[in-house]
C-alpha cells in the first residue's frame, strides 16, 4: 500500500490546521442571539444518541441562550480525518469527541479551550472526584483541554450458544479452571470456526486497518508500539515479534480469526468471541443468543488490561465557545455522568463501583462490571498515542500491510515498520 499525497495531507492538516485553530476564539454568540451548538461524536448508535439528546433537551430548558444542540456522528474508521477536514474547511464543530490516539496533537496544539475554570466553578460539579490518572492524557502545562468522557477497558464478548454448539468450553469455564489465556482462546476460536462455519474471534474495529486495536492483543506479551518516552520504535522488539507471530499463525494456520477481506459481526451472531468495549453492549438483542463478557485472556506476561480513552473538548475558535463549555459542564456533571455510565465508563471515582455502574447497566452482571470495567480501569494501559499520530498511524498501517499474507516474514515486516517510523519518533 503506497501513501499518496492525500494521506500525507491528513497528517499535515492535523498538525498545521490545529495550530491555526488555536489563534483567536471566544464566544461571539451574544451579538447573534441564542447559540446553536454542534458536537461531533463517533457513534451513530440510536441508544447513544437518544441519551445525548435527552441530556441536551434538559439543558436547554434552563438555558434560553442555547437554541439547539445537535450531535453529528462521524464514521469511526475515519473519524479524526473527517473532523480535521471539517476544521480545515472552516466548518469546525463547537465541541468534539477526541480519541486517545490523537489526544497529544489536539491538546498540545492550543486548538481546544481550557476547561479547568469552567468545570471547577460549576455548582455541584465535584471536579475533585475525577480520577487524576484519567486526566493526564488531556492536560498540558497544568491545564485540562478535554474531559475524559470515556475511560473504557476492552473485554471479550462471548457467544456462549455458538461455543456450546461447537462443543467448546466457554471462557467462564476456562477462567474457573485457570486456563483463560491466549493459547486456549485462539484454540477454542479456531475449533469453533471449523465446526460452525462462523468466525472464531474478531478484534473489533481492527479489520486489518486499525492496527492500534491490536494493542489489546500484543500487550499480553509486554510489547509496545514505541517506548514510554515515545522516541524508540517497539515493533521490532522480541516481545512484539512473538506476539505478532502468534497472531499471524492464528489467522492463517489456525483460522481462529477471519482473514483479510472477510467481515463478521459478533452482534449479528456471526462470531464466537469479539474484543471490544462495553459501549457495544447496546447492540445486544434481548431475544438474541446467549452471551457473556469476560476480561482479556492472559498473555505470557500474565493478566493485563487495555483501555480506550476519549475526551470531549471545546474548540477555542468556536463562536459559541463559552456556551459550549457550559453545556460540556452539564453533560459531564455527576448526575449525567452516572446516566452515561451505561455506555461510557466515567472517570469519577465515586461512580466506579459495581453497584453504581449496575444501575445503568442492567444487562451486565456486577461481576462482569467489576472484572472487566473497574479492574480494567484500575490496572489498564491506554492504547498507543503519540504526537503526529496521523502520519505515524498511516506509516504503521502501510508497514504492516505485507504482514497480512500467509507467507509473510513476520520479523522482516516488523523491522520494516521501525524503519518507516523511527525518523518520525525521533523528531
From TrEMBL:
Domain of life: Bacteria
InterPro entries cross-referenced by the UniProt entry: Bact_solute-bd_prot1, SBP
PROSITE patterns in the record: PROKAR_LIPOPROTEIN
Pfam families the record matches: SBP_bac_1
Coiled coil feature spans: none
Annotated protein name in UniProt: Sugar ABC transporter substrate-binding protein
Organism: Micromonospora peucetia
Amino acid at each position: 500500500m503506497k501513501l499518496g499525497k492525500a494521506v500525507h495531507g491528513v497528517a499535515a492538516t492535523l498538525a498545521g490546521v490545529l495550530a491555526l485553530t488555536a489563534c483567536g476564539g471566544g464566544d461571539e454568540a451574544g451579538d447573534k442571539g441564542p447559540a446553536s451548538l454542534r458536537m461531533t461524536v463517533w457513534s451513530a448508535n440510536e441508544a447513544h444518541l437518544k441519551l445525548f439528546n435527552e441530556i441536551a433537551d434538559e439543558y436547554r430548558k434552563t438555558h434560553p441562550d442555547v437554541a439547539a444542540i445537535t450531535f453529528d456522528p462521524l464514521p469511526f474508521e475515519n473519524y479524526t480525518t473527517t473532523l480535521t477536514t471539517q476544521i480545515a474547511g472552516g466548518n469546525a464543530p463547537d465541541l468534539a469527541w477526541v480519541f486517545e490516539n490523537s489526544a497529544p496533537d489536539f491538546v498540545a496544539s492550543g486548538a481546544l479551550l481550557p476547561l479547568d475554570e469552567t468545570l471547577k466553578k460549576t455548582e455541584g460539579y465535584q471536579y475533585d472526584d475525577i480520577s487524576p490518572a484519567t486526566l493526564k492524557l488531556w492536560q498540558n502545562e497544568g491545564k485540562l483541554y478535554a474531559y475524559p468522557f470515556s475511560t473504557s477497558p476492552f473485554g471479550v464478548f462471548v457467544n456462549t450458544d455458538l461455543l456450546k454448539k461447537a462443543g467448546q468450553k466457554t471462557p467462564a469455564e476456562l477462567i474457573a479452571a485457570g486456563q483463560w489465556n491466549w493459547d486456549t482462546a485462539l484454540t477454542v476460536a479456531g475449533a469453533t470456526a471449523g465446526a460452525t462455519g462462523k468466525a472464531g474471534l474478531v478484534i473489533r474495529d481492527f479489520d486489518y486497518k486499525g492496527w492500534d486495536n491490536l494493542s489489546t492483543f500484543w500487550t499480553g506479551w509486554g510489547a509496545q508500539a514505541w517506548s514510554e518516552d515515545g522516541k524508540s520504535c517497539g515493533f521490532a522488539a522480541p516481545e512484539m515479534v512473538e506476539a505478532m507471530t502468534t497472531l499471524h499463525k492464528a489467522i492463517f494456520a489456525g483460522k481462529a480469526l477471519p482473514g483479510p477481506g472477510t467481515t463478521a459481526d459478533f452482534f449479528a451472531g456471526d462470531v464466537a468471541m469479539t474484543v471490544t468495549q462495553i459501549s457495544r453492549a447496546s447492540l445486544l438483542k434481548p431475544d438474541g443468543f446467549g452471551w457473556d463478557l469476560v476480561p482479556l485472556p492472559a498473555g505470557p506476561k500474565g493478566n493485563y488490561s487495555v483501555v480506550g480513552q476519549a475526551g470531549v473538548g471545546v474548540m477555542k475558535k468556536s463562536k459559541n465557545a463559552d456556551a459550549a463549555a457550559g453545556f460540556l459542564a452539564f453533560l459531564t456533571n455527576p448526575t449525567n455522568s452516572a446516566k452515561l455510565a451505561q455506555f461510557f465508563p466515567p472517570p469519577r471515582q465515586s461512580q466506579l463501583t459495581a453497584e453504581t455502574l449496575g444501575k445503568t447497566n442492567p444487562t451486565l452482571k456486577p461481576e462482569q462490571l467489576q472484572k472487566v470495567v473497574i479492574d480494567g480501569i484500575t490496572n489498564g494501559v491506554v492504547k498507543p498515542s503519540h504526537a503526529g499520530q496521523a502520519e505515524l498511524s498511516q506509516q504503521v498501517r502501510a508497514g504492516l500491510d505485507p504482514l497480512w499474507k500467509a507467507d509473510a516474514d513476520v520479523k522482516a515486516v516488523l523491522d520494516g515498520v521501525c524503519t518507516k517510523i523511527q525518523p518520525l519518533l525521533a523528531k
